[in-house]
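Recall the central idea of this unit: under ordinary conditions, the amino acid sequence of a chain determines the structure it adopts. In this exercise we apply that idea directly, starting from the sequence alone.
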Amino acid sequence: MTTTSSLLDLAPVVPVVVLDDPERAVPLARALVDGGLPLIEVTLRTTTALEAVRRITDEVPDAVVGVGTVRTPLHVKESVAAGAQFLVSPGATPSLLDAMDDSGLPYLPGVATIAEMLAVAERGVREMKFFPAEAAGGRPFLSAVAGPLPDLRFCPTGGITSGSAPAWLALGNVGCVGGSWLTPADAVVTGDWDRVRTLAADAAALRPPAAAPDIARDIAPDIAPDIAPDTAPASDTAPAPGHEPVPAAAPAYNVAPPPAHGGAPAHSVAESWSGRRGRRAELR
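Accordingly, the structure predicted from this sequence is:
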């Protein structure tokens, strides 16, 4: 069975959420999902973040909620226990990468330099968070990286706005961007969910609907037909010299190194989602 396994393809923009009051978590998540953004990153920047994740996981089934600002193996364990469906880190140390691998969840490790990208890629990871995006070189840097590292894809986060997001998304090695502009602090405090919903809808429109993945297939692969990847109608017309197509890169899986490197077979996002409640109960 083939399933879409990439976090980067679920939405053009990932809301990066900071919550001081867990009571705001559920209505905020519903506004984002209703606006067309199912992927939500709740950052570990407040003491109430994990409680917010628990509530969203339990009460907003259409949301795909992850934990961001994951910095230690303990953060990984706590995030899994809270019901996280994916993990995002600002950087990547060997022990943190080990813990995220072992969690069984999809994850986006943070990188800011080519050396960091290579170190993470050695583990079989092909999708990463580029952070802090604007301060670390911006679009010129990430565009230049595509040449020597053509198999890597990124979710740039840090300093990106509604105005700059389209230019970031135009880069070939960018799958989505992360941004906090979708959840303005004053809108969250006052409960202005219509404003949040409108901002989410505007962000969701940055990617044409035809390019959006089948999210239902990701969540419930057992009821979806098998779809063969990387197949396209054959052309009877030979390409002009010098314009031969570049072979498509193999799909990336960010859960464990591929078997060739001694790791367990990679899991899909759907597999990780389907088992999250069991792991949460086990770790409580």
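Confidence is low (pLDDT under 50) at residues 209-237, 242-281.
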